[in-house]
Fold:
Amino acid sequence: MERLQKVIAQAGIASRRKAEDLIREGKVKVNGKVVTELGTKVSPNDRVEVNEIQIEREEPVYLLFYKPRGVISTVKDEKGRKAVTDFFPEIKERIFPVGRLDYDTSGLLLLTNDGDFANLLMHPRSEIEKVYVAKTEGIPQREDLRKLERGIKLEDGKTAPARVKLLSSERKKQTAIIEMSIHEGRNRQVRRMFDAIGYPVSKLKRERYAFLTLGNLRPGEMRELTPHEVKQLRALAMQSNSKKS
Structure:
């Protein structure tokens, strides 16, 4: 038996919080009867309807994907560009990306059909660490990197402190390879931070998400997360949330 709002979230209909709103508003039925009590539990044999449409009870799916450049982090794209879900035609569950990577950014991206899990990881309080490797036009000086470490003022506010490390530089081509660790998830954040100090990013890759790495995956390949990895991610996010409560 599982809580009704969790079943709705896992079906990809809405986040658990939104599912709770739907229940309160009388838009959810269990076995043909309207249910408004949030503590209601249902079994796999119960028929659940949201807005008069029966939901499909899916098994939760958790994937680690190596997103290539030139792929959009969405379920589908109005402009006809390739989307991350196009790489999984064999998966029948309605998966979606956890957060996003820009069209021109490659690297580690999680996908799931578990809305509750996705919202937990993406919540600002969760502070999941994400590690990127950027190739910059120009070679930043140490003081430039310190600005990133202290936080950069962007149009949507000052960024949280980052961890930054110069991995290598090429004097002739005037380029540098820099590792940056952040826990925020603003739109195009890494690129905007480097733009702010005058060193545009020409290539960007997400190397790590929390304790997860790409391992031996090649662009366009994926693997399933183990139950232990899913449990660890939940624990990390919940621990961070509880510290800020």
Summary: The domain at 62-125+212-244 is CATH 3.30.70.580 (Alpha-Beta Plaits). The CA atoms of residues 114 and 156 lie 29 Å apart. The chain has three domains: 2-54, 62-125+212-244, 129-209.
